[in-house]
Design a protein that fits this description.
Elements lengths: L1 E5 L5 E7 L2 H4 L5 H15 L58 H17 L3 E4 L9 H11 L6 E5 L4 H7 L5 E5 L5 H6 L2 E5 H11 L2
Parallel strand pairs: 1-3, 3-6, 4-5, 4-6
Antiparallel strand pairs: 1-2
Helix pairs in contact: 2-3, 4-5
């Protein structure tokens, strides 16, 4: 698949790059995508939820009324779950929601996600660029030039670039990652995936294994 390379001003450079069909042109595996996105979202959960059960409630354990003769049910403690302020029955406890997926499935999911974006013409290749200073305005100018100022975008760098990353950090609609940080969720969450030329080799190497 041939894609024209553009500069940060949105103009064609006259060069084209070949995107590997093994990464950007496969038949998407929807179940692999589902599992990888599910794992990503599960890993974001803190799992710190907790409610007190009857053994953890502060209160007297005195029997609050006699066993028989009241005409109502037996009650042994004010901490009983049936009373207001009592402990909760089978309440949530801290837990870890993460689960394991093998590497081959995760690679398949990322290839599927990139293929979906490529088939929708939402993959853009931009020549490598850098900023002299850290300014959000610099990154906003690039977004406007590429027509992405009103869309969610994912910029993929070949290697870490502090100036570009920090210039984008205040923008909710844009995210900057390196090729090694690419995830299925981030690819699908963005309207457009912007690949810098320097990231292509790393992406194809990582996902073609």
């Amino acid at each position: 698949m041939e894609v024209a390379v553009i500069d940060i001003n949105g103009k064609e450079t006259g060069r084209k790059v070949n995107l590997s069909d093994a990464v950007f042109g496969i038949e998407p595996n929807n179940h692999a995508v589902y599992l990888d996105v599910k794992q990503y979202l599960a890993n974001q959960r803190q799992g710190t939820h907790k409610s007190k059960e009857r053994a953890e409630i502060a209160g007297s354990t005195r029997k609050i009324k006699k066993q028989k003769g009241t005409g109502t049910a037996r009650a042994g403690s004010i901490k009983s779950p049936v009373f207001r302020g009592g402990g909760r029955i089978f309440g949530p406890r801290p837990r870890n929601y993460s689960f394991k997926l093998n590497k081959n499935l995760k690679r398949l999911a990322r290839r599927s996600a990139l293929s979906i974006k490529a088939s929708e013409s939402n993959v853009v290749v931009v020549e490598d660029f850098n900023f002299d200073t850290i300014k959000t305005k610099n990154f906003t100018t690039v977004l406007k030039s590429l027509g992405l100022d009103n869309k969610k975008s994912l910029f993929v760098l070949g290697e870490s670039n502090k100036n570009v990353y920090l210039s984008s950090r205040n923008l909710k609609s844009a995210e900057v990652v390196t090729a090694s940080e690419l995830s299925t969720y981030k690819i699908l969450h963005a309207n457009s995936v912007v690949l810098l030329e320097g990231s292509l080799k790393g992406i194809e190497t990582n996902l073609s294994k």
